[in-house]
Every structure is written in C-alpha cells, then in structure tokens.
Specification:
41% of the residues lie in helices and 13% in strands. By secondary structure, the protein is α/β, with parallel strands linked by helices.
C-alpha cells in the first residue's frame, strides 16, 4: 500500500495489518531473517491514534534498521551479543526520534548484515535475508531487512544506513527506491557505526511519490527554474543486460558522459575501492576494539576476517588511501562545477543467489559504489527492471540532499 492508503486505515486496523503482513508475507525462516523486533499491536495502534494531525508523515508505519537505537529495546546490529558489550539506550536515537516527529509510527526494527560489514545480506545468526520479489536471491546488504519489509509491502517506509552501498544495493536488488544522506549527519552520529568517514543515514520506499513525500518531510525538497544538467557514466564490469538496461533507464535524465569527462572520471575513480576498503577497515576496528578480542568466537567468521584485516594494512597503504580520498573528493568538486548530477549503475548484476555471494562479486559491487561513498555524497537509487524480471538500479549522485535534481528525477519516474 502507498502512504495515502495506510493513512486511510483506522489505528487498530493499521496495527493489525502490519502484524498480519509479517506473518503472511514472510515464511517463518524469513521472519527471523528480516524482523529483529516487532512492537505489540496495542502499542502501534496507540501511536497511530496519537499521531499529530497534519504532520508530514502522519500515520505512516516504518521500521528501523537495528543499528538505530529505539528506547528500551536492545540494539544487536545483526550480531548475537552486542547488548552484552554496549548499553541499551533508554531513549530513541536521533534518526528514529526525527522520523517519529514527522508523525510516522515505529512498527519495529529490522535485521541486517552483522555490524553492517557486508553487502550480501547473509547472516549466520538470524538467517540470510532473501528478496521478497526474488525468492532464493539475496536482498543485498547491509540494510537487508529494511529493504525486505518495504519490498514485501509490510511497511511503506524503512530506515537504513549506507556506508559502502548498504541502501543503494538492496534498493536495486529488491526493485524499490532508496535515498542516502551524507556522513557525519546528526541522524547517523549516535547509531552503531561502521566507518565514520563514510557512514550515512537513509531510507527506502516502494514508489517514487512516496519517496518524494519522505524526502520532503525529512530533509526538504527544492525546485529549480532551470533543467538540471547531468551525465551517465557506464563503469566497466557490468553484465551486458545490466549495461543495456541502465543506459536506457538513464536516457530520460541525461546523455552519456562526453569522452573527456568519461575518461577523467574513470581514471579518477580508479583508487576508490581500495581507498574505501582500507579506511573502512581501520575505522571499523576502532569501533570494535574494545570488545572484539573477548568476543572473537561469536562473530560471523567473514565479518571477523574483515575486521582483523587492519592488522595487515601497511603505512604505505594508509598513505595511498588518504591520497585516494583527497584526490577523488577534488574530482567530485571539479565535476559539480559543471554538472548537477552523475548517474551510475548501482549493481553490476541482479540479485545474487547464495552461490554468487563471492568475494569477487563483492568487489565488483564496491567498484560501482565506492566513488560516491568516498565523495560523501547523497544518492537517490531508482529501480531498473531487467528483461529477466529481476532488477538493478541507477545511482543518481548529487552534491546536497536538498538538490533540486532529486525532486526533478522523482517527478519523472
């Protein structure tokens, strides 16, 4: 249902609908893989009834990724042990509080790739999160459960976070819309972090009008009297069907980049993935070092391997990463002197099967998404349907969450 259809329901009916949809639209296995915490019907109904009349997102139910704190509810971050080493907050975190202030109603919390350190949505503790629209294939991660509740129609809005691609990838794999903000925003600052240089808050909706409403309510929408100028850049490594579909989907918004712009960007983005991986490894260890050693055997082995990669990073690699960060940010500054937005494919392929969740494919995904992460830039993700019926997406990369480009693109979707 759309935002407007949810708003037509009576409070008790809306609360009941959420619970019924969790039970009917997710198998018992996927309920555990998708939903971390579901509030009782009576509490949800009371909040629906108490929503401030006329508030921007009045009576819109939402879920929050389980790295955003909800008062009195333990935050696990996709792990089996986090509340044992991190205090449970008595009050809502900044993002949940701000979303509630728009009149939206918290329905629960969603599962995620452990500690947000992964892109596949696999989780050995709670189960791998599958796309509701492509059973047997992953939602992608790390905001896996949030994308799943929106794609399954359980709620029309879900909060996520994006460090390397954690909103963009699940939105593309699940065929929904995603929006990420900028690092060091107050809404991400008190959440469970992965890498503060890159961590951003974001959210998902099922359709463009609802995304437009959510952005307007949460950060504001701007318009411009001139048509924005952008270009589409085809990055290497896309599957042929994805390359064709993304080129076609981008054409209503922008022409392909001119050769000199294309070559400048492709060359400049070259160090992005390695710089991202090095800086993330260093900063993730800073988050975990207080408890990592004593909890070593309770981590997902793959996550533990990524965390401990910091031990092998050399001073030369750190210097290269810092140089890559500075150089790519300068490249973005130069780009935005001429253009208002850049379009990239969000994924090199459609949603993966379990067998396809490999290191090599993870690197292919990060190659596409690291440039915007390094730039610390907002991104609107627009779904793109492939001939197979599976989906990918476009990254619409802008230089401000309030960029008129966002409003302009959503008005054309």
């Amino acid at each position: 249902m759309t935002f407007a259809q949810w708003q037509e329901l009576a409070p008790a009916a809306a609360a009941r609908e959420i619970h019924q949809r969790v039970r009917s639209r997710l198998s018992s296995v996927q309920q555990r893989a998708v939903v971390a915490f579901l509030r009782p019907e009576s509490e949800i109904a009371a909040d629906f009834a108490g929503a401030a009349p006329g508030s921007p997102l009045e009576r819109i139910p939402f879920f929050a990724k389980d790295l955003f704190d909800v008062g009195g509810v333990p935050t696990f971050g996709g792990s089996a042990f986090l509340p044992e080493v991190r205090l449970t907050r008595a009050v809502d975190g900044a993002f949940v509080k701000a979303t509630k202030a728009t009149g939206a109603v918290l329905a629960g919390k969603t599962q995620m790739h452990e500690f947000a350190y992964g892109v596949t949505g696999e989780n050995p503790t709670y189960g791998d999160c599958e796309s509701p629209r492509a059973p047997g294939r992953t939602t992608g991660g790390s905001s896996s459960g949030s994308a799943a509740v929106v794609a399954a129609g359980i709620a029309p809005l879900a909060l996520g976070s994006d460090t390397g691609c954690s909103v963009r990838l699940p939105a593309a794999f699940c065929g929904i819309y995603g929006f990420r903000l900028m690092p060091r925003d107050p809404w991400i600052s008190d959440a469970l972090g992965l890498a503060t240089t890159f961590d951003t808050a974001g959210w998902f909706t099922d359709n463009a009008p609802d995304m437009r409403t959510a952005i307007g309510a949460l950060v504001g929408l701007r318009t411009s009297q001139r048509e924005p100028r952008g270009c589409y850049l085809e990055m290497p490594g896309l599957d042929p069907d994805v390359a064709t579909a993304c080129h076609q989907a981008a054409s209503p918004f922008a022409e392909p980049a001119e050769p000199f712009v294309r070559d400048d960007l492709l060359h400049g983005f070259g160090p992005a993935r390695d710089s991202y991986n090095t800086i993330t490894a260093i900063e993730a260890w800073e988050v975990h070092q207080g408890w990592a050693e004593k909890c070593q055997d309770r981590y997902d082995p793959n996550v533990w391997q990524r965390l401990t990669r910091v031990r092998s990073i050399t001073p030369a690699q750190i210097a290269d990463a810092d140089l890559g960060l500075a150089t790519i940010r300068m490249l973005w500054t130069k780009f935005f002197l001429t253009y208002d937005f850049l379009i990239l494919a969000a994924t090199p392929f459609p949603a993966m099967t379990k067998a396809e969740c490999t290191f090599e494919n993870r690197m292919r995904i990060l190659t596409l998404n690291a440039p915007a992460s390094i730039g610390g830039l907002p991104v609107l993700t627009v779904p793109v349907t492939l001939p197979s019926g599976l989906t990918t997406g476009l990254q619409i990369i802008v230089n401000s969450p309030q960029s008129p480009v966002v409003n302009w693109v959503l008005g054309r979707c």
